[in-house]
Design brief:
mainly alpha, MetI-like fold
């Protein structure tokens, strides 16, 4: 087989996938397109923050609370750092940590949920009761207590929030997995002697992926807001690292003087949350099998 023949055989599936993606985008509602555009803009800013920001993340470039000007588009903060640069770096830090936390929570909760539904017995009962105990305590209060005990490093922040948030993922993954583990193909895999991790990854996970992907977007919003709330309270991402929640707290005094600068990081938090919900709503509609009425 020549190289040209191999390329010719590989190219059509890729072209077909691209065409399907474009067709779905054309059918997407305006709200979903707006949400995707906003998410792409946030991701672009987060990835290329060092190239976009006019100043360094913690660089002091002026006096305290300078007004908006050509030199400092959104003024400066309480230490004389450029607010626009802090907002840009805040996207990188806040979104990056929120994504890492959400991924870890889904790994923990999703794995335990599938395992509990597949094995059952005392493992299911033990995991279920442990989740009930963790969910009985308000998540923000529990996170504040644990961060006060173990410290406010980024590693502790990600681990604590991921473990607390994984309880919701466990509930969902176990519920949807219970409808899959009774199927014939799962029983056939068991009879063939396949290992539990193989069954979870190859038989159960592909069949519960749509609700998990939709839940990932929702859980990302909750994790994102939790991190911002903890930073606002002083136990989240610590200075001098730029974070939108702590930026609201540090510049809140400007509200008393009619300055809207503290609303900029708050608006960035709200806009990202709305955009993610637009995309998740569209994805839920697509995976539900419902048809649009024309």
């Amino acid at each position: 087989m020549t190289l040209q023949t191999a390329d010719a055989q590989i190219a059509p599936p890729r072209a077909g996938l691209a065409k399907r993606a474009l067709r779905e985008l054309r059918r997407a509602p305006p709200s979903a397109l707006l949400g995707l555009a906003i998410l792409l803009a946030y991701v672009f800013v987060a990835i290329f923050a060092p190239l976009i920001a006019p100043y360094g993340e913690s660089e002091i470039v002026g006096s305290q609370y300078e007004v908006w000007s050509e030199k400092h588009l959104f003024g400066t903060d309480q230490l004389g750092r450029d607010m626009l640069s802090r907002l840009i770096y805040g996207a990188q830090n806040t979104i990056g940590i929120a994504i890492a936390t959400t991924l870890l929570s889904f790994f923990i909760g999703g794995s335990l949920g599938m395992l509990a539904s597949l094995v059952g017995g005392w493992i299911d009962q033990l995991a279920g009761r442990l989740v009930d105990v963790l969910m009985a305590i308000p998540q923000l209060v529990f996170a504040l207590v644990l961060l006060s005990i173990f410290g406010t490093s980024i590693f502790n922040l990600i681990l604590i929030i991921a473990v607390l948030d994984s309880t919701r993922v466990f509930r969902l993954s176990r519920a949807v997995s219970m409808n899959v583990v009774v199927m014939d193909f799962v029983e056939a895999a068991r009879l063939q002697g396949e290992r539990i991790p193989w069954i979870m990854a190859r038989e159960i996970l592909p069949n519960i992926l749509p609700p998990l992907v939709a839940e990932f977007g929702l859980r990302f919003c909750f994790v994102f807001l939790t991190i911002s709330a903890l930073s606002f309270l002083g136990l989240g991402i610590q200075p001098p690292t730029a974070d939108w929640g702590s930026m609201v707290r540090e510049n809140a005094t400007l509200i008393s003087y009619g300055d809207v600068t503290p609303l900029l990081p708050a608006g960035a938090i709200a806009l990202l949350t709305v955009a993610v919900n637009f995309v998740v709503d569209w994805f839920l509609h697509k995976t539900s099998g419902l048809k649009d009425e024309r």
